[in-house]
Design brief:
Strand 4, helix 5 and strand 5 form a beta-alpha-beta unit. The longest helix is centred in the middle third of the chain and has 30 residues. The protein has twelve helices and 28 strands. It has 609 residues and is α+β, with helices and mostly antiparallel strands. Helix 9 runs antiparallel to helix 10, helix 9 packs parallel to helix 12 and helix 10 runs antiparallel to helix 12. It has a five-stranded mixed sheet.
């Protein structure tokens, strides 16, 4: 009789924990404590039981609030029965955070694990994130993470050659990946069926699979009943070894087989498209916080190299706030409104920390610049936190009794500027806009000099005069000429003078309202394409023009909502900035702003984290 091949199923005991979802972080805090306590109790009752948990933030909560429990966890980690997974601060959304944020997840997560447990995580674990950007294998490899486990998109959302594959990022980095079969939760009467579905996926590429079990979402973890069911199942099926295990063991035991796994060089999309437009405010705060912290860190590093200013220790707390709020059910917009009130508090705390640090560093550097003292002069020190030189628009507000001033750079060359509306309404407050040429990772000094009569020696005629007729408003600089329709408020033409070609095949800046009868996630929705109305903005006017910039403002309405767009064209810049302000009161509708580019290509180049 031919001997049957021994198939192996690694039963991964864990608890999918959403620290925030249909509850706030305070309730999540409690569920993590209860789940970890339960896992430790199961270890005392069953010698065969192993437990896996991700998210360094959870462990830090336990360490701070239950040090005795934390000591038990450390002991179980040393024994090899408690698997530290993830390697990141939480299980974040894997599309929206910046690339630097993913690096910080690993920096803070792996550093914490190394410091507290003497080891780092090896398996990145994101079972519930709604999509996964293709650049992750590169960052994972450089973070000491050797494999990736996920569940979404599921088999009905993305067809894979195999649930076991080598995931490859654009730079060529590869990492073995596993798509969870059926569900990351498996408990109760469905557990045996859950195991069988996993066994059915065993194929020629591997004689081993992983099956995840444990009460999840609100935590809980493996129960006594499920552990007994698994032990019983293993005893009753001779040719199928069902053993309690950890993810790292699975990937170690399949190392040779991984050479035969297919390669996937692609994003892992799509699940729940609606999450990427839901709750725009939290997404806005996330990006502002990321940028504020990076900017503050760079200027603080500059100050630390050139002065005796100490590195702000508060940066750690700020980053942990941002990283925690990147948890997939927070950043994706799928949590309760009261949970977002908490998230806004911590985002604002992060930005306040960044603001204080940035100001301290900028002040420290600025006060050490050798400037000629004069009561008739005002000095602006403009910093560039980027690694490359940049010519950027700058706005500066100050007090002055007279507008008889000129602006000069460090070489005493006059710089064109433009008076704009100040934020303050006090009579002596003034505000200007100008273009600053800045070195990479550096600063430039500009001086506002009081003169008897302001007569600029540099050319004031740097922007062509606005041309207007009954149909449209036309603006141009040395690179671009564009026309705004007075009837619709849409840009009807953008002409590139360098290429001598029209850049549009139809209107740009065209607000379009689409039907959306789905929920927050929009499961199963491929696209929003049922057009309800194009919004015309017939209130069009030139509100500002001068040697630095020209601003055309258009305004319109849709039912109970208002939209305003400012088209801003600067001298010497080959782009039109579009500043949009929306007061939106509609339900079950999606607003898009469309641009019809005259491009004969089906290839899109766009940013990923």
């Amino acid at each position: 009789m031919e001997q049957q091949v021994k198939q192996k199923v690694h039963m991964i005991g864990h608890a999918h924990i959403d620290p925030v979802w249909l509850w706030t972080w305070r309730e999540g805090y409690q569920e993590i404590k209860a789940t970890f306590r339960s896992a430790l109790d199961r270890m005392n009752e069953f010698d065969q039981f192993y437990f896996t948990s991700s998210s360094a933030a959870f462990y830090e909560w336990i360490e701070q609030n239950e040090p005795e429990m934390f000591a038990e966890i450390k002991q179980r980690v040393q024994e090899g029965r408690w698997e530290i997974a993830g390697g990141w601060w939480v299980e974040p959304d894997c599309n929206i955070p910046s690339g630097e944020s993913f690096v910080r997840h690993a920096l803070y997560g792996q550093s914490y694990f190394k410091q507290k447990f003497g080891r780092t995580a090896k398996i990145c674990f994101n079972p519930d994130s709604f999509g996964h950007a293709a650049m992750l294998p590169q960052i994972l490899r450089k973070s000491g993470l050797d494999a990736y486990v996920f569940m979404r998109p599921g088999i009905n959302e993305k067809t894979l050659e195999s649930d076991l594959f080598m995931w490859q990022s654009p730079d060529g980095s590869q990492i073995p990946a596993f798509r969870i079969v059926d569900s990351y939760n498996g408990e109760g009467p469905d557990l045996v069926g859950h195991i069988q579905k996993t066994i059915d996926q065993i194929g020629p590429r591997s004689d081993q699979m992983m099956c995840f079990y444990g009460v999840g979402n609100h935590g809980g973890g493996p129960t006594i009943a499920s552990i007994k069911d698994i032990l019983k199942y293993d005893q009753e099926h001779d040719c199928k070894q069902v053993t309690m295990s950890v993810m790292e063991r699975f990937f170690n035991e399949t190392a040779e087989q991984q050479k035969q796994w297919p390669v996937l060089a692609d994003d892992l999309q799509f699940h729940a498209k609606g999450c990427y437009s839901a709750h725009s405010r939290i997404k806005h705060l996330n990006r502002k916080s990321e940028q504020a912290l990076l900017r503050a860190e760079k200027i603080s590093a500059m100050a630390g190299m050139s002065t005796d200013l100490a590195w702000p220790e508060e940066f750690d707390r700020a980053w942990k706030n941002v990283l925690f709020n990147q948890f997939h059910d927070i950043l994706a917009g799928t949590s309760l409104e009261c949970a977002y009130q908490d998230a806004e508090i911590t985002y604002h705390e992060a930005m306040a920390i960044a603001q204080r640090a940035e100001n301290a560093a900028a002040q420290k550097i600025s006060w050490r610049i050798n400037l000629t003292s004069s009561t008739r002069h005002k000095y602006f020190v403009v910093f560039n936190p980027h690694a490359w030189p940049a010519g950027v628009p700058v706005e500066a507000e100050f007090s002055a009794r007279s507008k008889d001033v000129i602006l000069v750079d460090a070489d005493s060359q006059e710089v064109a500027f433009q008076w704009i509306q100040p934020h303050a309404t006090a009579s002596e407050k003034k505000r200007i806009s100008f273009i600053a040429d800045l070195p990479g990772f550096g600063y430039a000094v500009f001086t506002l000099k009081q003169v008897k009569t302001a007569v600029l020696t540099c050319s004031q005629d740097k922007m062509k005069a606005v041309q207007e007729n009954n149909a449209c408003i036309t603006v141009e600089n040395q690179f671009i000429k564009y026309c705004v329709s007075k009837k619709t408020g849409w840009i009807e033409s953008i002409y590139d003078k360098r290429q001598n070609r029209e850049m549009l095949s139809g209107p740009a800046g065209q607000p379009a309202v689409y039907d959306d009868n789905s929920d927050t996630w929009s499961h199963g929705v491929e696209r929003y394409d049922e057009l309800l109305q194009l919004i015309e903005m017939p209130d069009a006017a030139c509100i500002e023009t001068g040697p630095v910039r020209t601003v055309i403002r258009v305004k319109g309405m849709y039912q109970n909502s208002h939209i305003r767009q400012d088209y801003v064209l600067y001298h010497g810049q080959a782009k039109i900035d579009v500043q949009v302000k929306i007061d939106w009161h509609e339900q079950l509708k999606v607003l898009k702003i469309r641009t019809a580019a005259a491009v004969d290509s089906d290839k899109v180049i766009s940013e990923t984290p």
